[in-house]
Amino acid sequence: MRFVLFALVGAGLMLAAGCGGEKHVKVTGLLLDKGKPFKLKETEEITIQFLAIKPDAQIQNALADFDAETSTFTLHSPIATGIPPGEYKIVVSCTTTDEHARDRFKDAFSEEKTTLRYTVTGDNSQDIVIDVKSKSVTKK
Predict the structure, then answer these.
(1) pLDDT (tens digit, 9 = 90+) per residue, 74-130?
(2) How far apart are CA 80 and CA 42, in angstroms?
(3) Residue 131: what pLDDT?
(4) Would you give the DSSP letter of residue 3?
(5) Beta bridge partners of 98
(6) With CB atoms counted within 10 Å of each terminal CB, which end of the chain scores lower, N or C?
(7) Which residues contact 18 (CB under 8 A, 6 or more apart)?
């Protein structure tokens, strides 16, 4: 009976930690354009996505919730708030919501072309700054 109880408790702890106990880091950030908060136009929406560089990473991609008022974002993976430590490329698109759906960045930060990279470390949380004009990512 005790063995079953310990097994159930152990399995519950692994699930709570997120698949095999791999650590998930809360990543938040600020999106800038020429050093100033990024401003969306009325007919635009923005997508910020982190894509794992390693093909065998536990989580391959994570999307960010973007707050247009503060120009800040928070990453969410499919299984947890946050993402595992590792190296990621960052995809950013700012498209119009009309039928033409043009990207303000002309695909400069698409999955194929982006030069934006960030290494998530083992710290519990990280705050970063992405500047689309200078095409840079820095840790606060």
Answers:
(1) 999 887 778 999 999 999 999 998 877 789 999 999 999 999 999 999 999 999 999
(2) 31
(3) 98
(4) H
(5) none
(6) N
(7) 24, 79, 80
Q: Where are the alpha helices (DSSP H) in the chain?
A: 2-17
Residues 6+ apart with CB under 8 A from 92: 31, 46, 47, 48, 49, 105, 109, 114, 116, 130, 132
Place of tokens 């990473």: 57
What band does 11 get if pLDDT is binned at 50, 70 and 90? very low
For β-strands 125-131 and 26-33, DSSP reports them as parallel
Query: Measured between alpha carbons, how far is 76 from 26 in angstroms, rounded to an integer?
Result: 8
- What are the structural domain ranges in the chain? 24-139
15-40 pLDDT tens trace:
444 445 678 999 999 999 999 999 99
